[in-house]
Specification:
The protein has five helices and ten strands, in the order H-E-H-H-E-E-E-E-E-E-H-E-E-E-H. By secondary structure, the protein is α+β, with helices and mostly antiparallel strands. The protein is elongated, with a radius of gyration of 19 Å.
Length: about 190
């Protein structure tokens, strides 16, 4: 685990903290992984470098409200293939996964997968590295109309903002990394 991910986990658990307390907590978590303890100047450097993830108010550090996830809904629909949706509620610490198949010659079916396959904390850490907040609202190829392709959509609600993105046969950076994180969480495919 990267140091900034450890800081995020500590802030998630404890709320806003001053740098010396974050430093103490980080050293408690990472003592066995490091030869030297992390200094407050190192924590300050990380917070400054990752200012899009952290918020500083009167000497206390917190997760930036626009990056603190509350819920996520992601859908991937393949025309004539299996489609998927995952719904994650970070507040209630649960998720559900749904899959269905739309074909002309049969009835659609769906399966809800139990929420016991993955770890929501690991998934949340992956979300921070995927940078969904940097994705464009729409990803589409400019040449022609696509009648059968892969359509996807995503809605991420955070404490301070809602991020929405969608596309057809065109994907944002880190899309594969996002799909892999969803698959690890749900234990089912998401492609």
């Amino acid at each position: 685990m990267r140091v900034y991910e450890t800081i995020l986990s500590i802030l998630e658990k404890n709320g806003p903290l001053p740098i010396p307390e974050i430093c103490y907590e980080v050293n408690q978590v990472l003592t066995s992984h490091r030869e030297k303890p992390i200094l407050p100047s190192h924590i300050k450097s990380i917070v400054t470098r990752k200012k899009d993830l952290f918020h500083v108010n009167r000497g206390s550090i917190s997760i930036h409200p626009d990056k603190y996830p509350f819920s996520l809904i992601a859908t991937q629909e393949g025309f004539g293939r299996i489609s998927y949706q995952v719904r994650v509620n970070f507040v209630k610490n649960n998720f559900a996964s749904l899959e269905w198949k739309n074909q002309d010659d049969c009835h659609p079916f769906s399966t809800i997968h139990p929420a016991n396959s993955g770890n929501l904390e690991d998934f949340k850490r992956e979300l921070y590295t995927v940078n969904i907040w940097d994705w464009e609202p729409s990803y589409r190829k400019e040449d022609g109309i696509i009648l059968d392709g892969n359509y996807w959509s995503l809605k991420l609600k955070t404490m301070g903002k809602i991020y929405q993105s969608e596309g057809i046969e065109c994907f944002p950076p880190n899309w594969e990394k996002f799909c892999t994180a969803v698959e690890k969480l749900t234990g089912t495919p998401f492609r």
